[in-house]
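Design review, sub-item: ligand-bound model
Attendees: FS, YL, KQ
YL presented the inputs for the pyridoxal-5'-phosphate complex:
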Amino acid sequence: MEEIPFTRTLIGKEEEEEVLDTLRSTLIGTGVKTEQLEREFAAYQGTTHAVGTNSCTAAMHLSLHALGIGPGDEVITTPITFVSTASSIVYTGATPVFADIEPDTLCIDPACIEAAITERTKAILPVHLYGQPCDMDRILDIARRHNLKVVSDCAHAIEAEYRGRKVGSLGDTACYSFYATKNMTTGNGGMLVTDDDNLTQLIQSQRDHGMALGAWTRYQTGEFQEYPMVQLGFKYIMWDIPASIGLHQLRRIEQRHRKRLEVAARYDEALKSLADHVELIKTHENIRHAHHLYVIKLRGVSRNRVAAGMEKRGIGVGIHFRPVHLEPYYREKHGHTPGECPVAEDAGARVLSLPFWPEITEAEILRVVETLGDVIIECRDS
Ligand SMILES: Cc1ncc(COP(=O)(O)O)c(C=O)c1O
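KQ shared the predicted structure:
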């Protein structure tokens, strides 16, 4: 029987033609296509500015750095995320502080954020996990009361809304990933959005070696110009080949989101038959879920054995995520130990991500659920 992959990327003719158009132009670096994607992405998110980067990790690092976070500071984040959320904090010289998660949604728990605040805390870095917005009313309230910055990890949350607003329009900056598996992809790439004019200028310079004017701006004037380095910067800039792909991915995102909703609802329904061993992830009220991943929590059966059983039967699965604070690096270099975030540690041992993309068929969904049932019985009985 044919394998069912964990995810599938959809690249259309439009992307192919746009990339060819860019390749045949005089500048394939950062130029018109990057600017166009920035404009269209800002309009989609409802923010004043969007700044293209080469990854979400770079966007998070740039945000924290430009907001003045550095050695001696602490930034509170969740342990149930991809490792790079916490890496972006470590890059600045600050310390990531891991706050536990809500048991039913797996998003960061605002009560645990509040409990983790010290006089060194400078920012909160919530992750809108699997595409579900965190409890932003409470997080923004905590930030206001303690004078903290809020940088959102929106890697999963391009289409996500909170109380009718795009979730990335809340807080100081929000950072998006266009990595190969994301809801919209450019292969690798990212974007940062904000309403802050001064911060945008700082970040535009810092993403491009700390130059006063970006290469594209210099090129556009058609006149000789000097381009002084006014601060230390990074090579984090987006360029026109990935931007060409992104333009058409963005234009298709709403239509594909409707299918994501249907696929998630179909899984919810089909998995009811496995309720003894499968817990669904709950959602907050007043949100629009971006449905980047479809994740379940297993109960009374070994997650790793189920994952191996699924793979053996040709069904791709994933684990999102193992708790970051228990990664060898954080144990060895930051002294973290088990027991610090019990809810995250329990979830991290039980989560399993099932095959999920907008065009997955009804037959494929049913085969995934049926196989999961068989594998659970096998793992439970042996
Ligand atoms: C929650 C989360 N944050 C950040 C990232 C990093 O994104 P990028 O690869 O664009 O740096 C990922 C990527 O998988 C992610 O899942």
